[in-house]
Amino acid sequence: MYAIETEGLTKIYAKKKVVNEIDLKVEQGSVFGFLGKNGAGKSTFINMLAGLIHPSSGSFKILGEETHQSHKMGVLPDYSTFYDDLTALQHLKYFSSLLNVKLAKSELLDLLQRVELEDAANVKAKKFSFGMKKKLGIAQALINKPDILFLDEPTSGVDANAVLTIHRLIQDISREGTTIFLTSHNLDEVEKLCDDIAIMNEGVITVQGSMQQLRDKYQNKLIVAIKHTHVNETQMRSLRSQLEDLASVVEWGQNLTTLTVDGEWLIPEINRSFLHANVDVFRIEVDEPSLEEIFIKIGGNQRSA
């Protein structure tokens, strides 16, 4: 049984598929990283799983059940809302009552200590920094001791010290067996914390697998940028056919094409492909990118196989 399983999950706003037929499986007890740029559809996806919005089509299961499992989930939304005149402790007491979870004051204080807010227990939220609010949001998400914890951009906009605190907390929670679904636009963060990842772009998953699988698949790739004469539709079709088995096309352009290839030995053959299509090549630039650069390029322009 998977912690999370989706099939064709789709959300449409104003005739646009913000989330487009996503099939995804998340192992129990894993930390799953969901990467993507702002506007990629990450928050919409996580909000459907958390039961905050309804999908337009498709289905999903949480811990094997299709019915909403709010008592088994904790959620940190991208933007948490707090009441200015309530203290951290009062917030946790209030949210525990909303969840119908009875916790003693000592247990609420333990939650605050866990997120390093014990010294701010009686401080009103209006005096909190953005990072403190993020930590309070995580404490709130842990009130019901969830089996699955959804964290939407937990370190976005916070200072370096808060990032370290949140990272340690995620690792501690994971060691306790909780499944964590983490959205982020920071590959370094995901690489540090996550067992498996998926990259979303414009509502579709473009890359998916374990961190090790993705390193093995992409780390030794080269990115080749080719400056060439204007390409018409006939030449484009010819190039697509010839390059299909040589390289992954990251970006087509009328005068600039970017590819990923397995090695430099393929470049002469790629050059010949352009010549066969009657396209003159002005310049070829080869780059050995970081894993993050490859994910940014491939993740943003290819659909997952």
Automatic annotation (TrEMBL):
Residue ranges annotated for the ABC transporter domain, each copy included: 4-227
Gene3D superfamilies the record matches: P-loop containing nucleotide triphosphate hydrolases
Regions annotated as coiled coil: none
Domain of life: Bacteria
Database matches in PROSITE patterns: ABC_TRANSPORTER_1, ABC_TRANSPORTER_2
Keywords for this protein: ATP-binding, Nucleotide-binding, Transport
InterPro entries: AAA+_ATPase, ABC_transporter-like_ATP-bd, ABC_transporter-like_CS, ABC_transporter_ATP-binding, DrrA1/2-like_C, P-loop_NTPase
Record SMART domains: AAA (SM00382)
GO molecular function: ATP binding; ATP hydrolysis activity
SUPFAM superfamilies membership: P-loop containing nucleoside triphosphate hydrolases (SSF52540)
Entries under PANTHER family matching the protein: ABC TRANSPORTER ATP-BINDING PROTEIN, ABC TRANSPORTER, ATP-BINDING PROTEIN
Name of the molecule in the record: ATP-binding cassette domain-containing protein
Biological source species: Guptibacillus hwajinpoensis
Lineage: Bacteria, Bacillati, Bacillota, Bacilli, Bacillales
